[in-house]
Amino acid sequence: AKAWQAAPDVMTNVYFLVDSPANIGALYPWLDVVSLLPPGLQLNRFEWYQRGVQSSGASLWCAEPFQDLAVGWAMDVSGPVQRESGQKGVTVINVNMDKLTDKHLGKTAGNLVLLSKAGVVVGASPSAARWLGVVGLKADIVKKTKENKFASADFRLGAGGQTALAKALAQALADGKLEGTIEVDRVSRGWLSMDIPEVGFRLIGFSGS
Hints:
This protein is of the alpha+beta class. Helices cover 22% and strands 34% of the residues. It contains 6 helices and 11 strands. The strands form 2 sheets. Strands 1, 2, 3, 4, 5 and 6 form a 6-stranded antiparallel β-sheet that branches. Strands 8-7-11-10-9 form a 5-stranded antiparallel β-sheet. The longest helix has 11 residues, at 164-174. It is elongated, with a radius of gyration of 19 Å. The N and C termini lie far apart (43 Å).
């Protein structure tokens, strides 16, 4: 409990799953997900478990945001649980993306857009979001979830619901470009793309104020 209280507030929960000698899981803080899962479900079949097992000792982020049962938009990082005798299982940390992007992008004066591995607009600073007219993760999330229409692909930079400007930027990135210019309100602004290898995200910065 003390360790959890000292953890960053963007963390929503931590899950431990040990596969040897038995399939045993523990979730903190506690959330009753057991009643939502089919009896006898083998948790080691989940993607996050396999990602941690196959990570060669490093922790790996998921490629796409997902709808968490407790907090809404989330992403997770999965890593192996090891002992002297070898790997025993994985530990997974869920991160609240709303809190994370608000904390680092919501109040910044910079002009930044953060993309996931799959090109989903995880977050954007207010000015960059306004220029691009970009639709980020927060948009209509409650409505879409209630209607069972949630799909993170809807929020990719090049998705159908994005502006022509956002789609043009997505195409430039798909073509392998790491920098260029875009015209916003008749003002040409330079942009630069930088990978964040530790988490697999991509950060795009724009010139101007």
